[in-house]
Design goal:
- By secondary structure, this protein is an alpha/beta fold.
- It has two domains: 140 residues, Rossmann fold; 128 residues, Rossmann fold (3-Layer(aba) Sandwich).
- The chain is 37% helix and 21% strand.
- The chain is built from nine helices and ten strands.
- Strand 7, helix 7 and strand 8 form a beta-alpha-beta unit.
- The chain starts with 17 loop residues before the first strand and ends with a strand.
Length: 299
Amino acid sequence: MSAGLSGGTAGAAQGRTRYLVAYAADRRSKDALALAGVLARTFDAALDVVYIVHEPSARTAHQPNTADFAAHVRDQARAWLEEARDRVPAGVPVELHLRDAASVTAGVLDAAAELGSALIVIGSGSGSGRPLVASPVVGALLHASPVPVAMAPRKYGAGRGETGPLEELACAVGTRPGAQQVLEEAVEAVGRVNLPLRLVSLVDLAGHDRAAGRAARQEAEQALQDAAARVGERGVVRTDVGRGKDLKHAAARIDWNPRSVLLIGSSRLAQGRQTFLGTTAARLLAHLPIPMIVVPRPD
C-alpha cells in the first residue's frame, strides 16, 4: 500500500509516519493543526508544520524596500510557526519548516515529497451547513495530491471534545471502481491501532421515486454487506446507511462519533494516483460534522 494514515514512508524518521500540516496562521490552519494532533496521537505519527512564503508576495514591487519587507515576512512566519508548535499536543514530535515557493500549492507538494509525508492536513472551513471554503491552494491540493488529504471542518477542536485520540474510523463505501482500495486503507489503519471500523453509505433520494429509492437503499445495503465480508476477521465492523431526501438529510441520519474521521475515495476523474474531490464529496463537506480524508485514486 502507498502512503496513508498508518503506512510508514521513506521519510519517516525513527520509524514514525509523518503528517504534513499546511500552515498559514489563519483559522483554517489552526483547525488543521488540531486535526493533525488528533491523528498523530492516534497513529503515533510525527508532524511537519510547513509555512510557505509565496515569493511574489514577499518581493512585491509596492514596497519601498523589498529586501526589508521579505525579511519581515519571514520573521513573522517564524513567529507563527513557533506559535503553532505550542499548539501541538505534548508528546507528539513536531518539526517546523519555512520554505519559499513561487506557488504555495507547489511548495506544499514539494515539501510533502521531500519529507516523505504520508498525509497532508488542511482546514476546509466547511461544516455546520457551510460549504468548502474555496481557495486556489485547497482546490489544487484536493485535485493533485499523490497522498491522502485530511480536511478539518470549521472550528474543529474548539472545545467540542475532539482533541483526544480517535475512537473509531469511518469509511464511505461505494460501488464504483476504487472503493475497495479505500476500504483496504481503512482496514490497515484500524488494524494498526485496534480501532473499530464503521462502514457508511449515504443514499440521496433526490429525484428518486419510491421504487427507485428502495432499490438505491438495497444497493447500498448490499455494498456494505460485501465490504464487511471483505474485512472479515481483520477488524471490528459496524455498518450504517443514511437515507434522506437530499445529502444533508442522509448525512444527518448517521450518528457520527465526534472523535472519528471519514475516509472517502477520489472521483473517477482523478489522474493516476492523485486525489480528486468529487462533486458529491464536496457537497457532503457542508453537512459532515467530522473531518474527511480523501484517498487518492489507485493506479
